[in-house]
Amino acid sequence: MARTNGGIIGKTNKSSFGKCTITTKTSDGTLTTQPGTRVVNTLVVAGGGAGGYASGGGGGAGGAQVATCIVVCGNTPYTMTVGGGGSTVGADCTVARGGSGSNSVAAFPSNPITSTGGGGGGGAPGVESGSPGGSGGGAGGGSPGGCGTACQGNDGGDSPSPDEGAGGGGHTAAGGDAPGSTTGGTGGAGTDFSPYFPGATLPSCGVYAGGGGGRGDPTKGPGGTGGGGAGKQPSVAAVSGTTNTGGGGGGTGGGGGPRASGAGGSGIVIVKELSKASGVWNLKTHMAALTAGACGASTWPRFFYEIDYLVVAGGGAGGVRGGGGGSGGYRASGFGPSPLQGSGLELGPGSYAITIGGGATGTNNQPDINKGSNSSFSTITSTGGGGGLSGATAGCGSSACAAGGSGGGGGAPTGAGAQPGGSGNSPPTDPDQGNNGGNGHTRSGGGGGGATAVGSNAAQCGNAGAGGAGAPNTILGPDSSYAGGGGGAVAPNGPGGSAGSGGAGGGGDGVKASGNCSGFNGGSATANTGGGGGASSAGPNGTGGTAGNGGSGIVVVRGPSAVTFAGSPCAATTLSTHPGGDKIAKFTADATLTIS
Predict the structure, then answer these.
(1) 476 lies in a domain?
(2) What is the rounded average pLDDT for all residues in the chain?
(3) What is the DSSP string of 82-93?
(4) 361-378 burial string, b = 16+ CB within 10 Å, else e?
(5) Which pLDDT value is given to residue 481?
(6) Is the residue at 133 inside a domain?
(7) What's the whole-model pTM score?
(8) What's the number of domains the chain is made of?
């Protein structure tokens, strides 16, 4: 039926894009929803009750509840409480009911779910009856069982015999009565909840909330399926409920062997974040979802591809009579060392600007500290590497100029004393995009920082520091390394030590001065690796050699076989298809990526 606003009538439903994520909580904690989640289903199982002592009844299972279509907010923490099992009794031969289990809670404000702890099993005269709970505890000798809670569990069994205990209630069935003077009652059966979470691998195969068995002489009562513990029989101890099932513990008594009753099993909370977009909405509802959405963010369905990336910035130049250049910032998803992998991007069809950071140009002027340029793609920006420090005072302020994706190495001053390297991961990203440069010392420069390691420190009047190692990455298929730091230099009239080598991933080598000539040039970093340039030295007459250039950056984008990539200009773009079907686009200069 048409409306005046051009809309149509239909059922109003919440959209949710939770990727069918399933989270299992086995102890108290916080669950944070996916950004697109708006609806969840949950199972909440409380802690089971413990068995009683003397003519001990089995503990009742913790209450269990399934709740569906609970409205939540995306990227929001919710408190989950997992109830503990009831405490065991009887170890000191004191007649007692078993301890009751504790409640479990899924604290979703729109629909908080609390399941009640299982009732403890009954004991002997004066404490014979089972305690009430999610499922009731089984009776001790000659008494009634405890009551279960509606929609959470069942009653505990009764015991007409003064000597034997009844079974605790379970989620599916009531606890079994003690059938006579020689046999304990069977724990009530629990429930298989796995159909609520299809395809998931759940603890205990998804079967929870079984009741504990009663004490019997000579025949114990078995526990119910779903974690219920068996009762005691002569010389055989009672069994505790299984951890994180909410199972009840077995009842106990005399007759030789351990006397303690079985403790209740702790509970569990399972949450499934739904992906669904069902129902029909009118046009006003469409617009509301697009512009405001639920929980402060739009819930409107959109088409996108999961995209992985490698974004490496330009490396810093080496210092003159100084430290190696820092590598350009390294940021990646899906490939490379796992501690450095960020989250992939969700990108729809359209055009995206690619910026490739240039490597800094080395000079022969000691005060110069030359930093690399940033690379960027979509929301990901990697910062240019810090320039290597020199043996002289830098005019632009050494700390600021040497800081970057990875920091430049400290210089090689004539006087004694260490010169700190520049700071890496500046500005900070998560995961880190680089590391600090190494310290320089008397006449020896420190190594520039790399993607996976800090630059090495120089020894006083000894070896210069090596550049920090870069990161290996297989996003293109072959295993290639990126963002290695530049090596430090050894100054003239200095030690007999060696110059610092460049770090794996394109870092340039430093150089050592020798002989009576004007200067010694540092090694340049490899293009399109983001490596730091090697430091230069100077001849005895003080004229500096030219420091090595930093390596230019690179951007690589990888998506599923269904995506189509195009790049412009062609000279900056290399397109390929991985043998597994993924599409790959590599950029070595500024360009535009089109996704379709």
Answers:
(1) yes
(2) 88
(3) -PPPPPP--TT-
(4) bbbbebbbbbbbbbbbbb
(5) 96
(6) no
(7) 0.54
(8) 1
